[in-house]
Each structure stands twice: as C-alpha cells, then as structure tokens.
Amino acid sequence: SAELCLLPAVATLLPPLPGPGGPGPAEVGLGALPAELQAAVRALVGDLDVLFSALGLREENFAVGPLSRIVAAELAGYAPARNRRRTATNKASVVFVDRTLDLAGAVGHHGDNLAEKILSVLPKLPGHKTDVMVNTVELTALQTTDETCNIIAPGCLAQPNDPAAKALWESFMNLKQKEAVMEARRHLVEAASRENLPIKMSMGEVTPEQLSSYIKLFRNNLKALENHCGLLQLVLATVQTLKHPQTSKWDNFLAFERLLLQTIGESEMPSVLNQLLPMIKSYNNRTKDDYTCEDFLVLLVYIYSVVGEIESGKELDAAEEEVKKALVKAICDEPEPSPLLQKIT
User: In degrees rounded to 5, what are phi and psi of residue 132?
Assistant: First the structure.
C-alpha cells in the first residue's frame, strides 16, 4: 500500500536468542554472529542500499535491539551507501527494530483489521509470501463442493490495474473490519449499477451471504466480469475470510488473551499454566472450537512474552512439566502433523 511495503526476502531473518552464558547483547558485533546470519545481514544491507538509491534517500539510522544495531552500523559503514548519502537529495530517518522484542505483538489477536485476517487465514499463493489464493469458483458456472478444485486459477489480492480494487484494499488495511466490509459492499453496488445489473441495495449489517449474492449477479455477464475482475477477487477474499473457521477462533483467542492479561496481573505463572492445561486436548478429543497444537504454541509464546521476568521455583517447574507432557502427547497423537509441527519435531 502507499504506507507499507513488505520485504519477504528477509522474512526469515531473526535475531539469535541469547543462550545461557553466551555473550551479552551489548558485546556482539557482526563477527560474533554465525556465518549464515552474517551473510544474511550483509545481503540485507545491500538490498536496503539499492532500495534507498531508488528512492534517492540520505538516511539517518536508529536501532532498537542488538541485531538492529549491527545492521544499522553495517549500513552506516557500507561504502556504496556512503557514496549515495553524499549525493542523495531526500532525507529520511530509518528505525531498525529487533523482531524478538515484540513477540506478543506478532502472535496476539488484537487487530480489528480485515487485511490482517485475510492474510492470516487464506492459503498462500504458491511462490508468494505476501499474497493469498482466492477461490474464484463462484464467478463461474462450475458449481463444485470440492475444496481442492484447482481447474480454475485462483484470484489474489494484488490488483495494480484496478483503481477500485486498490482503493478497497487501502480500506481493508486502514479501517476497522466492520467499516471495511461496508466499503466492500459499497464498491460492489457501484460496480453493479454501472453495469446495469439488477442489484437490490439493502441497509444494515453486511453478511458474507449478502456479498455472495451480489457477486453472483456478475457471473453471467462476461463484460461486467472483465471490467470488475480485480474488485470481485477482493470481495471474494472477504467472503471466504469471514466464513473461515479460523476467523471465529480469532475472537476466542482475543478473549483468552484478555483473560490471561487479567489473570497474570492477579496471580502467579503456575496458576495461569494450570488454567491452560485442561484445554490441551488430543486430536480424538477435540472439536472444531478447541485449540490445536499450533494454537497452544502461539498462546504459550504470548503468555511468556507478556509476563516478563518469571521467578522459577518448584511450583512453576511442576506446572511447566504438566503442560509439556500434555503438549507432547497431543503432538504425538496428530494423525497428519502440519508442516510447522513436522519442522519442530
């Protein structure tokens, strides 16, 4: 979008976690990092220099966190970057932040944002890190219930040639979910009116079923389909996200995270873990509303990130041991472990 650019090539670059008795964050320079991470940092510095050259930037670097300090220092001393800064005309402040400083933000579910939900629940577009597959069967006369139907090419979110779709995507990113869904309806109604399609405008809350019924109006009109293809893909992404089981789970996560924050304030870590324990269920005992193994890993990352320093003791060790046992049993009982669980095990 106009305000946000994701750089998927550096998606895997994470600061090393401090090991017991390892060097403190303050003493680490580039030379102290593993060779693979050194190469990744140098590649990132080269990529950033190319990006800043294209933007004609003379940057001032700021860093939060040990790895960010290394990246900022490398960029400051990088010879091509020094030459660029002498001639560049635009000034910018660049702030590097270690991703591990906000793990709670990365695994939390506080965002009331449609773009975030679409990117989280729909399957990734093959070969892409930042775009998703939108099932476009609804735009065709082929009505199939087969989830894996791949005769029809999937749609996606990137619609650079469709001004209405670009405007709608901006609202998905910048507005609250309820307002963004209303924007989706408004754009659809405008498009249908322009094509003289028999649309019945309804007020009140927007439902996925209502959006679907509007989309079906375009189905038998090839000209209308062609004119508004980008917009229709974004609205289909909205419908599929709102109907997705993971979206209803999102609200469960949010409620549980709020409860945890209250509990952590009032009681100790062991009692929080004991609260979590009965919710860890093996595959055969789970319903669709229960948390999966991955969900628990996300919740544990959240809990340990927001709680800060923890005082260890017998009670905590016992509670952690019970959670570990339950999780290991649940992971071992998975009939088809997900790629993430396979990687972890």
Answer: -125, 165
